[in-house]
Design a protein that fits this description.
CATH class of the largest domain: Mainly Beta
Helix content: 10-25%
Structural class: alpha+beta
Order of helices and strands: EEEHEEHEHHEEEEEEEEEHHEE
CATH topology of the largest domain: L,D-transpeptidase catalytic domain-like
Radius of gyration: 27 Å
Number of domains: 2
CATH architecture of the largest domain: Beta Barrel
Distance between the termini: 45 Å
Number of strands: 17
Strand order of the largest sheet: 10-9-8-17-11
Oligomer: single chain
């Protein structure tokens, strides 16, 4: 028996609204077997005919490997304690497990938001059993912003966005001065967020992924308060938008910000949404929230500089 394995390679989708998409690979296993009949005294004529005939059996086995995001294929961290940022050295902290029946609110009271931001995590993912970083002086987190308070490159710009992938933080600047900062979830080592100098070119209040869905459903993943900053040569668009923050880089290349209202709508938690950095940045960039859901061109949108490398590379 002779067998050969033939692979039809994957092709990339021409355009995606949230990172790259890879089609399934198809393997064909083709086997041919030569069979010669044996002599039988009872059916001499029939077997004689079969001796002169080569029976070829072709068996094609098609194995389709299911598509999945590259981010899902990598080993995910067990918690924020496994992620290391340059600013970790500026704050003394301990790794603590969230006890059964506890939450960020019950553990840290008025400081729960600061602890969540420090861990780059949302309340849905900060569940009992997870290890998180807990500063020894939690009150120090009120001033925590692992970005420069003044960014000289942005000194001449009315609005400027700096994204530091190494810190997993975004800063909004006005004439070089930091106005506010917020944690992000960028692409990981398999679905990287592009670095360099960009500019916001479009805004969409209720954007949706064209490829990815809410896990366990067929509902397209919401990308609310979306701000587009890059379109690559393949037509792949990259956006800053609302999403869930699990405490480590996980996107397909876009920049994700807190959107607890979306999480309540899609997952049922938290019961009382409070963190909505995506909306804050969206309104800051546009001046106000639009009344309709059209895609708004931004011919002179704020510059966006993306630097560094995401943790885990």
């Amino acid at each position: 028996m002779k067998c050969g394995l033939y692979l039809l390679g994957p092709s990339l989708a021409a355009a995606s609204l949230d990172g790259l998409f890879e089609q399934p690979s198809v393997h064909y296993l083709v086997c041919t077997t030569g069979l010669r009949s044996r002599t039988s005294t009872k059916s001499t004529a029939m077997l004689s005919s079969l001796r002169r005939t080569l029976v070829t059996v072709a068996v094609m086995v098609v194995t389709v490997f299911p598509s999945f995001s590259q981010a899902d294929s990598s080993k995910k961290p067990r918690g924020p304690c496994e992620i290391h940022y340059p600013s970790d050295a500026t704050v003394e902290w301990d790794c603590r497990v969230i006890p059964h029946g506890k939450s960020l609110e019950t553990m840290f009271g008025e400081y729960w938001v600061d602890v969540a931001r420090f861990n780059r995590i949302d309340r849905r993912h900060a569940r009992p059993g997870l290890s998180i970083k807990v500063p020894r002086r939690i009150e120090d987190l009120k001033l925590f912003a692992p970005l420069p308070l003044f960014y000289q490159t942005a000194e001449q710009d009315e609005q400027f966005i700096l994204i530091d992938l190494a810190e997993q933080f975004l800063g909004a600047y006005e004439y070089g001065a930091l106005r506010f900062a917020m944690p992000i979830a960028s692409g990981d080592g398999h679905n990287e967020t592009p670095t360099g100098e960009f500019r916001l070119t479009a805004a969409h209040l209720q954007h949706q992924s064209s490829l990815y869905t809410i896990e366990g459903t067929d509902r397209l993943y919401p990308m609310n308060y979306a701000l587009r900053f890059h379109v690559n040569r393949d037509g792949v668009s990259y956006w800053i938008h609302g999403r869930d923050l699990p405490g480590y880089p996980v996107s397909h290349g876009c920049i994700g910000l807190y959107d607890e209202s979306m999480q309540k709508e899609q997952y049922g938690v938290p019961k009382e949404p409070e963190l909505n950095d995506a909306q804050r940045l969206f309104v800051w960039g546009l001046g106000s929230e639009p009344d309709d859901d059209r895609v708004i061109p931004l011919p002179q949108g704020p510059p966006v500089h993306i630097i560094g490398q995401a943790p885990g590379h």
